Amino acid sequence: MYRIVLAEDEPAAAENIADIIRLHCPQFEIAASADNGQSCLELIRQYRPDLLFTDIRMPGMDGLQLAMRIHGEMPSVRIIIISGYQDFEYARTAIQHGVVDYLLKPITPAALKSSLERIIPMLDETKGQRRLTLVHRLFNQDIPDKSELADSFPMPRYSAAISRKNGLPCRFFHTPYFNSVSNNYKIDGYSIEVYGRDEMECLHISPASSSGDALFATGALERIQWMHKDIPGYTTMVVWPHAFPIEELSRVLKALYTALDSHIVIGKTQTIMAAAKYLMAVQNVPPDHETRRLFAHYAKERKFEQIQRLLMDQVKQWEAEQQPQLFVEKELRLFLEQLRAETEGSLGRSDDQFEFMFEDAFFYATNCREFCDSLIDILEKILPTSLNAVCKVDTPEFFDLIEKYISAHLAKPLSLQGLCGHFGVSQTYISRIFRKYTGQSFINYLTLLRIEKAKHLLARKDMLVKDAAALTGFADQFYFSRVFRSVTGVSPSEWIRE
Predict the structure, then answer these.
(1) Mind listing the pLDDT tens digit for each residue in 349-365?
(2) Which residue in 20, 151, 230, 464 has a CA-CA distance of 20 to 30 Å to 54?
(3) DSSP 283-302
């Protein structure tokens, strides 16, 4: 429901507008009305409407003066000017002050309905941006006034969840969670979904059920799985099971992120209720001193094949124990630091190259077997042995074949795993050469390529948005629109109008 404040000094005209809205525009309601500009200004401050209807000619403060004040104080309020004067100079001035339409009296139902239908996307965009701004502020513990929160989050209590497809994002430990929420979001009634550190992670906020539970999470999990149906792998969802007032969102989010980052298990789809027991730090597993001594011995003796087998056995043991990603990453770093020390710094790759390869292995692996394959590939690249020979396919010509294959199959589901199978190389290798030749990850490269092609398609006036989405490999039009906006800053429909 969109709220309107009406400023009209002619009672008959005001009643006519109210009747039309009540009978023909059920998505709108008149929250308050006034017969002069000054009174209307106070009502707008009180009710914070989505839309202002104002006559130009009113006693005291006229419609244009009112529009100027509102545009300066509350630019999110959309304004429609009503006038009995066919004065295009007025219309020009009004547009400079945020007016989105200009209707002539007497107002007909068809004209008013058409005007309101045209601006609904603008109102939805405004509502979404307003909620997103508040979510950002809550992330940063900048708690808005209760009246401001209640305007965008009117339900008394909410539930929240974080969902994640596959492993944690690359360089996650350098990313401040509460400064990294994107401008990608979806509004559905009083619910909002905000896409966080990357496109694989989503924050869900929904009104709590009457019993205050978090049953909505099942539907959220189904949506995230459907959205990423073409991406192999696993999904982790962390649910806050208790209803809470929206001003407590910052506290809830910290708990959700703590649980998410501490409990992702490679290859395991799971839903976690973020009760107190899940928010404790990951328990430290006592070190296996025998394994470490054996590892040190192999490193000193340069027995790199034994090192590989030892690490693979260790990873499989962690898989059986369902150790979380953070634990596995920490332990492997300790092993590799030990290897670097024992080999007196003679490992083959630079620190930055190693970090990219290491993080990509966790990010792209959809199960433990794939992770082990990537880890073997990393070891073969960094160990100072004949295994560290330059791969024959590591050439610009080979990468050109990859680019041509992607361009030819852009409308079809494409994944890192599929490329590996087609070209017979490992995921870590594919990831590494994408960074080498493009300076970005495979996912970023593919997304930008698809959006660039979509921009060219949408330049054709006969091209529908859903067709452009399908031709660039997006099965879901809404997901396409969200990604398009994240890359270009505007929606596909806005791009077409430009």
Answers:
(1) 455 666 777 888 888 88
(2) 151
(3) PPPPP-HHHHHHHHHHHHTT
Q: What letter would DSSP give residue 74?
A: -
pTM above 0.70, yes or no: no
Same domain, 262 and 303: no
The arithmetic mean of pLDDT across residues 294-317, rounded, is 83
The whole-angstrom separation of Cα 4 and Cα 257 is: 38
On the CB side of 441, CA atoms within 13 Å amount to: 18
Q: Count of domains in the chain?
A: 4
H helix intervals, 383-441: 396-408, 416-423, 427-438
- Residue among 431, 480, 478 at smallest CA distance from 453: 480
Is the same domain home to 48 and 69? yes
Least confident of 241-245, 277-281, 301-305: 277-281
pLDDT of residue 204: 85
**Domain termination residue (choose one: 329, 358, 388):** 388
8 A C-beta contact, residue 374 and residue 308: no
SS3 275: coil
What is the C-alpha to C-alpha distance for residues 113 and 105, in angstroms, rounded to an integer? Answer: 14
Nearest to 213, CA basis, from 242, 255, 240, 238: 242
Closest CA to 54 of 92, 9, 8, 100: 8
Copy the structure tokens of residue 251: 């506290």
Tell me the residue type at 196: G
**Is residue 401 one of the residues assigned to a domain?**
yes
Structure tokens at 220: 């959220």
Do 103 and 161 fall into the same domain? no
8 & 123 share domain: yes
What does the alpha-carbon distance between residue 230 and residue 44 come to, in Å, rounded to a whole number? 47
Question: What is the rounded distance in angstroms from the CA atom of residue 376 to the CA atom of residue 308?
Answer: 7
Confidence tier at 389 by pLDDT (50, 70, 90) = very low
Question: How is 197-242 classified by DSSP, letter by letter?
Answer: SSTTEEEEEEEPPTT---THHHHHHHHHHHHTTTS-S-EEEEEEEE
- Alpha helical stretches, state H, 301-426: 304-321, 325-342, 351-364, 368-382, 396-408, 416-423
Average pLDDT, the chain: 79
Residue 148 lies in a domain: no
CA angle, 392 then 395 then 400, to 5°: 125
Instruction: Give dist(CA 327, CA 330) in Å, integer.
Output: 5
The structure tokens 């940063």 sit at: 140
CA distance 45 to 32: 11
Residue whose structure tokens are 């332990």: 331
